[in-house]
Amino acid sequence: MVRLLRILFWSLIGRPLVLVVLGLNVRNWKGLPAEGPAIVVANHNSHLDTFVLMTLFPMRLLHRLRPVAAADYFLRNRAIAWFTLNLINMIPIERSRAGKRGEDPLEDCAKALAAGEILLVFPEGTRGDTEALAKFKGGVARLKEQYPDVPVVPVYMQGLGRALPKGEFTLVPVVVDVFVGEAVAWTGNRQAFTQALRDSVTTLASMAPSRTWR
Amino acid sequence: MTPFDITINAAVALLGVFALLIVACGVQFGLAKRHPERDYTELKQRIRTWWVIVILFALAIALPPIFAICLLGFVSFLAFKEYITLIPTRRADHRVLFWAYLTIPAQYYWAADGWYGMFIIFIPVYAFLLLPARMVLIGETEGFIRAAGTLHWGLMTTVFSLSHMAYLLALPASGNPAAGGDGLLLYLLLLTQFNDVAQYVWGKTLGRHKVVPKVSPKKTVEGLAGGILTTALVGFLAGPYLTPLTPLEAAVAGLLIGFAGFIGDISVSAVKRDLGIKDSGNILPGHGGILDRVDSLTFTAPLFFHYVYYLHY
Q1: Do residues A90 and A62 touch, judged by C-beta distance below 8 A?
Q2: What does pTM read for this prediction?
């Protein structure tokens, strides 16, 4: 039932929203993983980021796509929780419990990878300022250390910070430029890997067209 | 009763367009056969995209006018979206941009309703005053005139100008007994697109002297003159069949569309150069963006509309 609702939601609302109301201009679309397990890492400016990332994949992979997001934010009330857990198929992460002993906040992510699913992660951890890349958190590096064979693919999206920025409720249609990079190889330690990951997203960002006056 | 709502003349003109496309396919096939070493992928993509556009458009034209008006409104939406994507906008204007989008359904509603007075002043007067009013109430002064100016330029070209195509369909049928609003719209589209091709072909074969090298280095005086004259000839021939224009008026309409199409084309080129980009988008394989395709129409649609409106309505 939930799977059917999810298919209906994405084929009637989610994907038309991204493809018709917004519109995509994707570079290196083939660079995305064709199957799981995999991790896709992207910059984060808007709630629509998840919608765009999920639309980049074919419908047959819909049920394998697992956006990773903050439990405290997305489980704050029952309606939003039902929507994100069922239709978005999100993996909630306890931000506040991170660091406490005994519980691994990444346990569900690791399980998903073991089950061959595709994680969609925003390592900035928050939407932040429009079109500015914040510091990356280290969760992806820990997963990569645990699963060195799982490809980690960087993606940069431009335009969503204009379409639906943090704190706004009105959607302004804008064509989204998407840049898919090459999978980032394990560098031997977590810190260096996190840095390499962020560098790869920054490199993609430098390919994006400038949207400011000269 | 069939769901179709089209005059014989307009239907014949549509069949003519399909015939042209088949000829284009034949030419492309012949070229590929004669020069197997050359790459014709872009030409092929271009023609395939034309098929999609023509089939969609033919269906919309053949059905009652509301279908074509909705399709044209959607074209305005795509063109305006491309424009908004390309220009720098201010973060403070988020909601102003939202209101700007809402002018599209309103403008096409006035057209469908045939409310001429509202149609003709809504964007040039009301949107022109109200959107900057919203901007100034938000209170960001830095870049104000640039933001208000670029936004209005986009609305005028992609929404106001293009919506004149829709209003052609709302004109009283008695004004054009031969082919109705469908005929006028087909005439405008045929001539505008034909003019693009004619200027390109004349320029390729005879082009020597550049017209506006800084804006569009490939445009030549020979291409422009040859294109305009050929368009006038086609306008003269097709005019009596699709429009209420007399043969002389139709020839002048051809000249008008030929010249205005050229200016529309290079205006969008100037915008792209100003922003430092090549294509306005990628939605039409082989063509680029919607703006690259409707560039000429942003000038020819309102001019042709008012020319016919003044003479015959």
Answers
A1: no
A2: 0.94
B24-71 pLDDT, tens digit per residue, is: 999 989 988 898 888 888 888 989 999 999 999 999 999 999 999 999
CB B172 within 8 A of CB B184: no
Helix (H) or strand (E) holding A39: strand A38-42
Whole domain around residue A131: which residue ranges?
2-207
Establish if A153 belongs to a structural domain. Answer: yes
- Partner residue opposite A25 with nearest CB, options B87, B101, B281: B281
Tokens for B246, please give them.
Answer: 């007399």
**CATH code assigned at A76:** 3.40.1130.10
* Alpha-carbon gap: A116 to the closest alpha carbon of chain B (Å): 33
Tokens 């209101």 locate to B99
Other Cβ atoms within 10 Å of A82 Cβ, number: 12
Domain ranges of chain B: 67-165
Instruction: Indicate the SS3 state at residue B112.
Output: helix
Tell me what ipTM this predicted complex has: 0.91
Interface with chain A: mutation pick from B85, B91, B277, highest number of A CBs within 10 Å: B85
d(CA A177, CA A162): 12
Low-confidence ranges of chain B (pLDDT < 50): none
Q: Is residue A212, in this structure, part of any structural domain at all?
A: no
- Which chain A residues contact residue B85 at CB under 8 A? 23, 159, 174-175
Q: Do B281 and A175 touch (CB under 8 A)?
A: yes
Total tally of structural domains belonging to chain A: 1
CA distance B280 to chain A (A): 11
Determine contact, residues A180/A212, Cβ cutoff 8 Å: no
Q: Is residue A213 part of a domain?
A: no
φ/ψ of B296, rounded to 5, equals: -65, -35
Structural tokens at position A86: 């069922």
